[in-house]
Amino acid sequence: MIPVVMPTYARADVVFERGEGPYLYATDGRRFLDFAAGVAVNALGHAHPYLVEKLTEQAKKLWHTSNLFRVAGQESLGKRLTEATFADTVFFTNSGAEAWECGAKTVRKYHYDSGNPQKNRIITFEQAFHGRTLGAISAAKQEKLVHGFDPLLDGFDQVPFGDLDAVRAAITPATGGICVEPIQGEGGIRAGSVEFLRGLRALCDEHGLLLFLDEIQCGMGRTGKLFAHEWAGITPDVMCVAKGIGGGFPLGACLATERAASGMTAGTHGSTYGGNPLATAVGNAVLDVVLAPGFLDGVRKTSATMQGRLEELIAKHPSLFLELRGQGLMLGLKLGQPVGEVVAKLRANGLLSVPAGDNVVRLLPPLNIGEAEVNEAVAILDRTAQECVG
Question: What pTM was computed for the model?
């Protein structure tokens, strides 16, 4: 008999009843150190007092009004996001997939309204992940995402990640933009090099294309800067954001320059719930914390400590931990044993992590963890490695 909750996930047999900071507590009394963070969503851990205060404060006043009216929280959060980034304007969504769809539509509409309706194709990359809508899986083209869901949407030309020559060769008169994750999450914590990202920006400028970044997972302080592309010293034309921006509340955003968003006029796009008063109250609270002086310095400091400890583990267990990938607190360990088995053993030992492609285990802790949590995680990884390799 099919479960009452549609069985689209291979769920672990654990039910959580509460969270506190970097820890989750299950109904059977077990405590877990959460280095999955809801797949990079719980950027500030669980039940963060300031977020709880701001959410409760808003919940007592107003939950929802529809986007047919001005929403004060959207205007304040949009102003802060544009002041902190390349963008001039923001569209708020409920999720990353919706934010990505808004970005793809923004790219197409820009060229249509610019008198180039034929420039409606977007170059994407192998092992990409942009969400689970038909458009997003059509762009990513991973077999595990698209199997059984044909026909896919047309309009996406895929090339190997990191290969600038392949991108250049794929550009045609029908190309309107390039969409890339600065660090692929689901694809195995594969980071685009500074040269690759700068090369994409240059190709867009040379051919009149829009650079569309997917920072759903790697953005909002995850790498130690507000957004990952800042490490390369470039700016996009369009960018989708989600996960950490809401700290656990469903919130996404599509950011764009005024030029790129010139076609997104009244009636071209919408969302029933996107950016409602509750969501933007939490979004503003998350931004209060992430943009506070010293916060991102702390992420970089913790990351340096954690990376050093993980490199020591690789040296100690070279047959299990093959390689460390990633940046900031978006880290991955490529494994010498099946990732699903290792993730299950880590969970049994009290550490939550996330499997990714290319046999990589993702470590995505809350951004406000300290050295004690890093040491605890490394101790569990060490103990698990001893169990795996004997």
Answer: 0.97
Residues of the chain above pLDDT 90, percent? 99
Element (H, E) at 127: none
Contact 98, 271 (CB under 8 A): yes
pLDDT band at 389 (very low <50, low <70, confident <90, very high): confident
Per-residue pLDDT tens over the stretch 32-47: 999 999 999 999 999 9
| pLDDT band of 221, cuts 50, 70, 90 | very high
Classify residue 279 by its DSSP letter: H
Token pair for 248: 């656990």
The region, left, alpha or beta by phi > 0 then psi within -120 to 50, assigned to residue 60 is alpha
Query: E strand or H helix at 102, and its extent?
Result: helix 96-113
CB within 8 A of 292, min separation 6: which ones? none
* Angstrom distance (rounded) from CA 219 to CA 127: 18
C-alpha atoms less than 13 angstroms from C-alpha of 262 in its C-beta half-sphere? 10
Q: Over 80: is that where the pLDDT of 390 sits?
A: no
As a 3-state breakdown, the chain gives helix, strand, coil percent values, each rounded to 5, of 40, 20, 40
Nearest residue to 167 via CA among 207, 227, 107, 111: 207
Whether the CB-CB separation of 248 and 41 falls below 8 Å is answered with yes
pLDDT given at position 313: 97
Please say whether the beta carbons of 101 and 136 come within 8 A.
yes
Burial tier of 237 (Cβ tally within 10 Å: 0-12, 13-18, 19+): buried
